[in-house]
Design a protein that fits this description.
Length: 177
C-alpha cells in the first residue's frame, strides 16, 4: 500500500465535506482553496507506509519558506485510482535539502475542471475514514516541525547547500540548540 501526502491550506474547512453526501452540493470553498494547480498538477510526496510520514513532512518543511504549524492529508493511492486520478513521479521544482527524499515527489496529474470533483471526492473519502483527524488528517505544530528538522540535522541527512534561503536562518538556529 502506498500513500501520497499533501499539505492542507485550511484543515478546519475540510470536515464540511461530510455535511453533504451529494458532491455537487458542496460549496466550492474547498476545491478553490485546496486544489490550486499548476499546469493541471497537484504536488504531493510519496510514502510506502504511514510509518514513513515524517519523511514526507520533512520534504514539505524543507520546501517551505517558514517553520509554522502544518496540516496534512494522507491519501491512499487506491482511492486516487478509484476516482480516476493519475499520479506520477516528478521533479519537485527545487533540490531538496534531504537528498534521499528528492525522488519521492509525485504529482497528481491531468487535473481538469471535471477532475476537481474527483479530487473533492478523494478528500471526502479520507475525511469520512478519519473523522477525528488522527490517522489520515494530521497536524504538526511549529515545535514538531522544528524537532523533525533538528533530528534530520543530527542524523546527518541534510545537505546545507540545498536549504532554501528563506529557511536558512531558522534552520541554523535549530542546529545550535
Amino acid at each position: 500500500m502506498a500513500f501520497l501526502v499533501r499539505k492542507l491550506i485550511k484543515m478546519s474547512e475540510l470536515f464540511s465535506l461530510c455535511e453533504r453526501t451529494e458532491i455537487k452540493e458542496i460549496y466550492a470553498d474547498i476545491p478553490t482553496t485546496e486544489f490550486r494547480t499548476k499546469n493541471g498538477t497537484l504536488s504531493t510526496w510519496h510514502i510506502n507506509s504511514l510509518d514513513d510520514i515524517e519523511d514526507a513532512i520533512l520534504a514539505i518543511a524543507f520546501t517551505s519558506s517558514d517553520i509554522t504549524k502544518m496540516d496534512f492529508i494522507i491519501i491512499d493511492t487506491d482511492i486516487l485510482s478509484k476516482n480516476s486520478l493519475e499520479y506520477k513521479k516528478t521533479y519537485a521544482g527545487q533540490e531538496i535539502a534531504i537528498v534521499d527524499l528528492q525522488d519521492t515527489h509525485y504529482d497528481i496529474v491531468n487535473i481538469t475542471i471535471e477532475k476537481l470533483i474527483n479530487c473533492t471526492r478523494v478528500y471526502q473519502t479520507v475525511v469520512e475514514a478519519d473523522p477525528d483527524a488522527e490517522t489520515y488528517i494530521i497536524r504538526y505544530t511549529a515545535g514538531d516541525i522544528r524537532e523533525l528538522l533538528k533530528k534530520s540535522w543530527e542524523e546527518k541527512r541534510v545537505d546545507e547547500k540545498k536549504v532554501p534561503e528563506k529557511l536558512k536562518e531558522q534552520f541554523n538556529k535549530l542546529k545550535v540548540n
